[in-house]
Amino acid sequence: MLGARRGPYRQKGLSLVELMVGITVGLFVAAAAAMLVANQLSSNRRLLLETQIQQDLRSTADIVTRELRRAGYSLAMDAWVWPDGTEAPNANQGILTPSTSEVRFVYNRAPGETGPYGFKFDAATNTIKSQLADAGWQELTDRRSLKITAFTITDLGTAPTQLPCPKLCADGTKACWPVYRVRDYRVDIAGEAVSDSNVQRSLSTNVRIRNDYVEYKDPLNPNLICPK
Description:
The chain has helices at residues 2-5, 16-69; strands spanning 102-105, 117-122, 127-132, 137-139, 146-155, 161-162, 179-181, 184-193, 200-208, 213-215.
């Protein structure tokens, strides 16, 4: 009777070996899927960090360039006009004093608001700071998310052009004639994410100052643009 039952009525299913092989294959598939998801999440996090760092650097560069372009701007522009070609304007044009990592300047932002303004790299906090007149230096970048690693202002060194005068200098030369030059600077900023030092970005932009620089070269008559 027992032998007869084994024929068409015997029980069917997976053996222990088959079950273990199936579980192993399933674990491999689940591990691969988990690894894929982890890689996707890591890539997405890195992309978000890169985007944030790039946006922060771009916003900082936009603020710096926008402010620098206004260096020397005056609300009383009539004071810059030479009425008879001899009197120098009553304004300080030598307002831009760049160094390797700092620049200061003045302009009339509003009546009674002339600065000084400026930007500099603070190595102690790895931030870019902005000078707001009497308010002093304040952090422009957020140290909690962005670590500034480099901030430089480079004078591109535009060659000066001499302005002609009706008369020669007292010594018979043109040495005292005024010169002017276009002021053009390059701003370089580099930074990295505070939470991941591998996420690094940098950018460079040129700034053309709207007000050209004029220099009076006659030490005996510093208020005259041309000899009388």
